[in-house]
Design brief:
alpha/beta, six-stranded mixed β-sheet, two-stranded antiparallel sheet, 9 helices, 8 strands, 43% helix, globular
């Protein structure tokens, strides 16, 4: 992308795009979309950036709640990443989820935006208890990639690199990327966009470390299930979401000021 091609960046999505796992609600969330905005601003200092993402949103909710506001902002660049929350629901329908995402692709590209999306990692390699969801991830990735091809949407194919399932890139809940993970995602998207200075170094593996013993691995699974899986299941049973009452953290296009 040339200078002047990305002056208005709008991000649509759920907790991943909101930045959960990179900072907290006290100091503020950063996240890969904020980090990507910094890459874009390095090329075009006049960049203005809006982030409409809200945690807990399903793909249909992202389309219903965020697409119209995004179009009203007339973005030059838009990122659309949704579907992970749908994967976790009992009645997951890959075709329906991908359909919502494709509607966003179609509307944003028709409005003249350069649209970018991501593929999702193999969750079974991140959380062994999530292995039954692997086929869902693979099917959704295939459908979203096909939809992207139909609309000229750029895909940052993060799944092709083994590093994306390295636990060190993930937060303790294993549902959200940690700071290093968000940094790698932003670098992957910057490279997919062809931004100056970007390359494939985001895919490089981290230094090797000793593998945990089976005993320690089993204990880690039990702790994870108690600390994160059980509360998530309890919220589902109550029909609640972590995004209830929340709104977009950055609903307007604003200049991206340098961080201290």
């Amino acid at each position: 992308m040339a200078s002047g091609d990305h002056l208005r960046y709008v991000a649509l999505g759920d907790s991943m795009t909101e930045g959960v796992g990179d900072g907290d609600d006290t100091v503020g969330l950063r996240g890969w979309a904020d980090r990507l905005a910094e890459h874009l601003a390095a090329v075009d200092p006049g960049l203005r950036y809006a982030n409409l993402a809200v945690r807990g949103r399903l793909a249909g909710q992202v389309r219903a709640e965020q697409l119209a506001p995004a179009l009203a902002l007339r973005p030059d660049v838009a990122t659309v990443v949704a579907g992970v929350n749908d994967l976790l629901r009992p009645r997951f329908d890959a075709a329906e989820v991908a359909g919502h995402v494709e509607e966003m692709f179609a509307a944003l590209t028709a409005a003249g935006a350069r649209v970018v999306t991501l593929t999702f990692p193999d969750v079974g390699r991140i959380a062994p208890l999530a292995r039954p969801l692997r086929s869902r991830v693979f099917e959704l990735n295939a459908r979203i990639s096909a939809a992207a091809a139909r609309h000229g949407v750029t895909v940052a194919d993060t799944t092709r690199s083994a590093v994306v399932t390295d636990p060190r890139l993930w937060a303790e809940d294993r549902l959200h990327a940690g700071p290093l993970g968000h940094e790698r995602i932003a670098a992957a998207v910057a490279h997919a966009l062809g931004l100056p200075g970007s390359d494939e170094s985001w895919a490089l593996p981290l230094p090797a470390r000793a593998a945990a013993s089976p005993w320690h691995a089993a204990r880690a699974e039990v702790r994870w299930a108690a600390a994160f899986l059980a509360p998530w299941l309890a919220r589902r049973l109550r029909g609640r979401s972590t995004g209830d009452t929340r709104t977009a953290k950055r609903p307007e296009l604003l200049p991206l000021y340098p961080r201290p």
